[in-house]
Write a structure and sequence with these properties.
Low-confidence stretches: none
Number of strands: 9
Pfam families: TED_complement
Oligomer: single chain
GO cellular component, one term: extracellular space
Keywords: Signal, Thioester bond
Protein name: Alpha-macroglobulin-like TED domain-containing protein
Strand order of the largest sheet: 5-4-6
InterPro entries: A-macroglobulin_rcpt-bd_sf, A2M/Complement_sys, Alpha-macroglobulin_TED, Terpenoid_cyclase/PrenylTrfase
Number of helices: 6
Order of helices and strands: HHHEEEHHHEEEEEE
Structural class: alpha+beta
Helix content: 25-40%
Radius of gyration: 24 Å
Distance between the termini: 50 Å
Amino acid sequence: PCHESLDCYDFYLLGNATKNTKANLENLVASNAIEEQFSLAVVSYALSKAKSPLAKRVFDKLLTFSKTEGNILYWKANSSDADAPRVRYAIWRPPRIQAQSSDILITSYAILTFTELGRVNEALPAVRWLTTQRNEQGGFSSTQDTVVGLQALSAYATKSLRPNTKLNIQVTGPSVLAAFNVTRDNALSLQIKQLPGAPKDVVITATGSGIALVDIDYSFNVNAELATPSFDVSTVLLYDKVDAFNLMICTKRLLSRETGMVVQEINIPSGFKPDLS
């Protein structure tokens, strides 16, 4: 039978390409040609999705590179820059430095593979680590690792959802600051509450049955840059008229190590539009 969104010929080509890709990856695994952690992570997930008998073999190889600290599990990339902090702080250092994007990607693919192989309980230590890497907006270091990271967390949440989920979660300080009720009906929904005031210490308690993730995010204003900038940006106003202006923007990277994709955003004052001619 053909797929409803494809004609029979396209469906045949897609199936044939998938079969050839699977066979090629299996040959690489059988010949031990894959050594780099990121490649192992991607191939593990791809073969587990394809129900390949070699998925476990390549995933077991990836697991040999994993790192364990207490009740968390994660991976660090082979790159020599893996131990370098993503951001250098000049006058203040936060309690936790976000991991490299490659580490987040590898760990995310590992979680996806755990869930595909039906080893959901084994994914929990990696999920614990991954959730500590999220920023205050819920994303991660870059667009790519945010997409894969959220996919991994969603897959784990879906597979680990229990029919008898019923949790009462309280956030307390001097008094009860917030309370959440988590049931099977809302277990996959985001609940947000703003804590009153600015309590110095809070305690989170949960009673009942099920799994839930609780994050506490805070933000504050400063009068100077806390981190050493990664880029230097300079602007020169070439000419300025009532209805037009020409602005030259120069960007220079200050760090020596390699980076991936960089996106520079330029905001335009209200009432103007860019001349792309």
